[in-house]
Amino acid sequence: MGFLMSEVPLQGAHPSAPSLGGGVQGVSGQSDFRESSSVQATAALEPCIILSSTSRGAGIWHLVLEAPHCAKSLRPGQFIHLRLTGDSMHLLRRPLSVCAVDVSAGHIELLIQVKGEGTRLLVAARPGQVLDAIGPLGRGWQPPEGVRRALLVGGGIGCAPLAPLSRQLAVQGVEQHFIMGARDAALMDALGVLTLGKHQSIAPHPVMASHPVIAGLTRNLVLESAGGLRVKPAMTEEIGTSLGVDASGVATGSSLLHLVTDDGSVGRKGFTTDIARELLATGGFDYLATCGPEPMQRILADLAYAAGTPCEVSLERRMACGIGACLSCVVDTTEGKKRACVNGPVFDAREVLWS
Amino acid sequence: MTNLTVNLGGMKMKNPITVASGTFGSGADFAALWEQTRAQGQTQPQAQMTSPSREALTNPRHEKPLSILGAVTTKGVSLEPWAGNPGTRIAETASGMLNSIGLQNPGVEAFCTHDLACLTTADVPVIVNVSGHTKDEYLRVIDRLEREPAVGAYEINISCPNVDSGGMAFGTDPAAAAAVTAACRTATKRPLIVKLSPNVTDITEIARAAEAAGADALSLINTVAGMAIDLQARKAVFARTVGGLSGPAIKPIALYAVQRVYQATRLPLLGMGGIASVEDALEFLIAGATAVAVGTANFTDPLTAIRLVEGLEQWCTDNGIQDINELIGALS
Lengths: 355, 332
Fold this sequence. Notes:
The structure holds 2 protein chains of 2 kinds. Chain A has 11 helices and 15 strands. By secondary structure, chain A is of the alpha/beta class. Chain A has a 7-stranded mixed sheet, sandwiched between helices. In chain A, helix 11 links the parallel strand 11 (287-291) and strand 12. Chain B has 11 helices and 16 strands. In chain B, the strands form 4 sheets. Chain B has an 8-stranded parallel sheet with strand order 3-16-15-10-9-8-7-4. In chain B, strands 5-6-14-11 form a 4-stranded antiparallel sheet, with no helix packed on it. In chain B, helix 6 runs parallel beside helix 7, helix 7 crosses helix 8 and helix 8 packs parallel to helix 9 (278-287). At the A-B interface, strand 1 and strand 6 of A face helix 1, strand 5, strand 6 and helix 10 of B.
């Protein structure tokens, strides 16, 4: 998950950043991001049955849960708050991004990176077990009205909440560039399920379908999925070399996936911020959405600000209640402390005071 | 039908269950979640409705969700808005959690306009937790709240470990505890509950001081002072180093404190500290608590308080208890 620590001035929030320029259909005079409205009103406790729980390597697990309420009410960027099972020592729930939703089946999908005891317990739960979820929670992505060209930048597990946004934008016909950053090929491979998706046979990811290599890979994946949904590292590498380095897609205006790793073991060697800077320099982006390590998000917020591109960031905080009551997960903003669980996790980058 | 009604220092509660200050906001967030969960429960197949708390929620006699509780206890409110503490605010521990929120709140004026307004129609007694840096601030918060008919009682917070001045400083010295209590007493005739800290050598000493100064009830315990360390950074997790430990990890400490204070004073007690089950609640009653508060368990299972109300009634029925008051201080 590449990023540089301080390659651009880190001036914190940008209260006076430019809003969405004129010329975009029917939004003059409107603010960039719609206010979230009564998001919490849809949150409920829901027992979720684990349908599958699969290790994807590199400490990443893919969970499919039966959660009809969440599936039908969740919007991209929102999260669920999962209670841990298996022992009584861990009291706090874990807030987790949803990376895919199948409304008709009532399924949601999670990518979980094992970081400590809590996530270890979550991935140890077996299919058939019931997890107790609160959701959907929080303010999700709120792209500007009339967005036409979007830049999505995910660092590591931060790609997860961007995947449903990517699908939403694709359905809306928005041109997009999705930069996926990871430590190495193993992590990129583990994250592959995000963009490739479990339900490819039902609805191929339009971003990928628009590119022959990816489209080919998608077909391969469908074949693979019968045998367990594994993406072969070689395939991942194929995407990387054909897209990550080749910037020709930028000029043609097609939607592209860009892979970048710290060690160059797949895609381009370097940082997500390198590619983001190059892409932003080509102009025309009217939305940047990012999730991942906070220093990376901060750099991207600054790049977006400099380019005059509206930007949203998705911030992670330790949470207790998850519903707005306990004030554990606050984020410093230009309007004082805001709660990541209800006012976020997605924030307008201009209001965030980076620590 | 068991009588669950208790009297906490002049405030009548229809059952002995309330929530611990700071874990429940002012109730609106939990009420919304309860409502939505009930709505889902009614539309989803019965197979989804597994836990007893969900059954409790769908009980038609609980039309307004917060009215299930004996009382709602609000987040601490101060005279001016407080920003709370910077940096990381919580850490999970073995069977517990540490917090260093620092009493972030919008100040009493905004509290009255927004938070209390929602509670006015909730059909539940309201205990407002009052905080201050100085004796005068406590007094002025109460002065303002006296104009609000929705307030049923005050809980005077002299035991928060997470603020620099005021808070626990008042609750660890008998003379200071008495002074704050006496000052608040002059400002109101409403029930005055003084919240005690466990971070003292002898909690009964503070309890007696608050009793002598005019408290109507005591609540205990506030969180136990503790810390967590970030090993990689070799730094304390919290900016103020100290945090307050809560959850089942502190239940034995809290239970013993309740038992001792029950012996040492005549005041009714609001017991809290790691209560997560009906059995926990009953143990506190037997140790001497008139009512109990659910705190950290609200985070683990937001339906805990409802589950306790229903479970308490069921336990009394099963055990031939006619009146829950029979159990208070029934330790033999």
